[in-house]
Specification:
The complex is a heterodimer of chains A (109) and B (198).
Chain A lengths: L10 H21 L3 H25 L6 H31 L13
Chain B lengths: L2 H26 L3 H21 L3 H25 L12 H25 L14 H10 L3 H22 L32
Helix pairs in contact in B: 1-2, 2-3
Classes of the chains: A mainly alpha (109), B mainly alpha (198).
Chain lengths: 109, 198
């Protein structure tokens, strides 16, 4: 059965939601003091990219859904990134006894 | 307008509202535990958006990987580094917030303008709907086989790397020769290398 998927929801609506998510992620990435929140912001940005990929694959590439395959790979890489990032964060916390991003300035002039 | 499309519109409105409010909550709330739970809500709502796009397999993968693994991992990290610390104000923080909000707002306006003004090739080819999962399997084992196998290597590397980075106990002597191991670069438990106050 083939669902009629350009439905009432326009493609642009998905893109705008993804844009809001991405911009919130960028703002959080720049302004967060807590290092865990920085990782959360990165996850938000990756999800925004995934929404874009899925919307394009459903609306413009309905037969060969290559965007969905790309979204699967993005999810895989995001899981690996979260694991390594949180391990680095734990190691950093044991060495510096803080998670404040402003005090991780060892390599900054 | 049929009943099904009305239901889709209502679902889309609710899900996108949840995504947007949840994302702003994640970056704005002062308590980071609330942020983590809101992040789980955002992930679930994004999975709902995938279901609206007829992508049931990716929605299931999103719930399993993001809500089940990444969010739990973030909660564990919060639990392990949960120290109340009053963040000292550094100079120009408010100015930085305002400036970056301006930059992000400009980025949002740019993205929205591109999304609205671009003549997308709509309507595209008909969606295959329910057969998406089978099509993803065909892709993964034919033309995307090499990235699929590389993803398994990447996951193995990430697992080993995370264990090596986060573990604390080290061998005091070399297992094979019995000599004392050189631990100059291995951090010891409870002896922070760098606690110099700026």
């Amino acid at each position: 059965m083939s669902l009629s998927l350009p439905t009432e929801i326009p493609l642009q609506a998905f893109l705008v939601v993804a844009a809001v998510l991405f911009c919130a992620g960028v703002w959080g990435l720049i302004n967060s003091r807590n290092a865990v929140r920085v990782l959360m912001s990165i996850e938000l940005m990756l999800n925004a990219v995934n929404i874009n990929l899925m919307a394009f694959s459903s609306y413009l590439d309905g037969q060969l859904i290559r965007g969905q395959v790309f979204a699967i790979f993005v999810i895989t890489v995001a899981a690996a990134e979260a694991a390594v990032g949180l391990a680095i964060l734990l190691s950093l916390y044991r060495n510096r006894e803080t998670v404040d991003m402003e005090r991780f300035n060892l390599l900054r002039w | 307008m049929t009943l099904a499309s009305t239901t889709q519109l209502i679902c889309f409105a609710v899900l996108s509202l949840t995504v947007v409010v949840g994302a702003f909550g994640v970056v704005l709330l002062p308590n980071i535990v609330y942020s983590a739970f809101l992040l789980g809500g955002v992930f679930l709502s994004v999975a709902g958006l995938y279901l609206l796009l007829n992508a049931s397999f990716v929605a299931a993968a999103q719930v399993l990987v993001y809500v089940g693994a990444v969010n739990v991992l973030i909660l564990f990290a919060i639990m392990l580094v949960n120290k109340r610390e009053d963040l000292s104000d550094s100079s120009g923080l408010a100015l930085r917030r305002v400036l970056s909000a301006g930059v992000c707002g400009g980025l949002f306006v740019l993205l929205t303008r591109v999304a609205v003004t671009t003549p997308w090739a709509l309507p595209g080819p008909a969606s295959i709907g329910e057969e998406a999962t089978a099509r993803i399997g065909e892709h993964l084992f034919s033309d995307y086989l090499l990235p699929f196998e590389l993803a398994s290597v990447l996951l193995l590397m990430a697992m080993i790397g995370a264990i090596v980075l986060a573990r604390r106990d080290v061998f005091a002597s070399d297992v094979i020769t019995g000599e004392p191991a050189d631990q100059g670069l291995i951090e010891k438990a409870r002896t922070p290398l760098l606690t110099s106050k700026p």
